[in-house]
Amino acid sequence: MKRRNLLWYSLLFAAGCTTRINSANNNSEQLPVTAPKNLKFAVTDVSGIENLQRDFGVFRTTLEEVLGVKIEFFPVENPTAAAPALLSREVDIVFAGPSEYLILNARAKAIPIIAIERSNYHSIIVVRADSKIKLLPQLKGKTIAMRKIGSTSGHIAPTKLLIDAGLNPQTDFKTVMLDDKGVQALKKGEVDAWATASDRYKNILESEGLSEKDFSIIFTSKLLPSDVFVASNQLPSNFIEDMRSRMVNNQDKLIKSLVSAKANRKYQGSKFITANDTDYNMIREVYQKIGQGNFL
After folding, report:
1. What is the pLDDT of residue 35?
2. pLDDT of residue 73
3. Where does the secretion signal sit in this chain (predicted)?
4. What is the homologous superfamily of the domain 136-220 according to CATH?
């Protein structure tokens, strides 16, 4: 009897040890790699520490809470400056537009964390209300105002629309980069069409004291690729995965803090989605067609 009891207790003890070992192993698999003490955060289209604080100060504080890591701003001089900063580990996380993402991916092997999908992010091509231009092929031989070189909604996507309409961007139309002043050039007849983002259109007209009745939208693109948060490839892969999981699980809080800044109201109603590299192939194609493939 004593021998049988001893054997029984021995089996229970062994089972208990096995259970504790398996539990410990399972827990260790679920724990993320020890997070760095701090992270440097840059935004490709915001320069200067004051502007970063104004437009992303509340978001940074919320992201610190979500990740449990101290986050410092790292201002960049221009959209492409984030690439060498990532390579030299001066910056760890970058919030980038679609075109800038391709630069960071090509030059610094940046890893996408999560994308933010805007519900009304399209390119539109606008003409004057009295224009005889109704279709994109009619823009052959015309002058088109766009925003700035590399702008997804104000340069790359409109160029793609014109390419798909059968026009050669190097020979069939003239492009002038006028930022938001393109609408005034269109109004005065200095250009034949104007390309901009659908979620900026009304705000630009209002700021310039113009009316929608003076213009006609002749084409609207499909939903454009999303802006994306990317990470340095020198960060541990499971820490990046942990960041992604935490951001998705806390997206309502993060997006609310993001849109609290006036400059980021365009993200109102947005959501975090998986960032798929293939979603950005349209931009790669345009750079090739305009003879700037080496840029990426």
Report:
1. 77
2. 97
3. 1-24
4. Periplasmic binding protein-like II (3.40.190.10)
Contact 64, 98 (CB under 8 A): no
- Report d(CA 294, CA 296) in Å as an integer: 5
**Residue 14 near residue 46, CB atoms below 8 Å:** no
The answer to whether residues 246 and 253 touch, using CB atoms and an 8 Å cutoff, is: no
Q: Is the pLDDT of residue 126 over 50?
A: yes
Q: Greater confidence, 150 or 245?
A: 245
Q: Span 38-119+225-295: which CATH code?
A: 3.40.190.10
Residue-wise pLDDT tens digits, 30-87: 444 567 889 999 999 898 999 999 999 999 999 999 999 999 999 999 888 999 999 9
d(CA 53, CA 31): 32
Which of 264, 248, 279 minimizes the C-alpha distance to 63? 248
Q: Which residues contact 217 (CB under 8 A, 6 or more apart)?
A: 124, 125, 126, 201
Q: Which of 264, 279, 275 is nearest to 45 (CA)?
A: 264
- 211-246 pLDDT, tens per residue? 999 999 999 999 999 999 999 999 999 999 999 999
d(CA 244, CA 201): 32
User: With pLDDT > 90 as the criterion, what percentage of the chain qualifies?
Assistant: 77
Name the residue among 99, 103, 63 with its Cα closest to residue 82. Answer: 103
Domain with CATH 3.40.190.10 in the chain: 38-119+225-295, 136-220
- Paired tokens of 4: 């049988």
Say what the alpha-carbon torsion angle 199, 204, 209, 210 is, to the nearest 10 degrees: -60
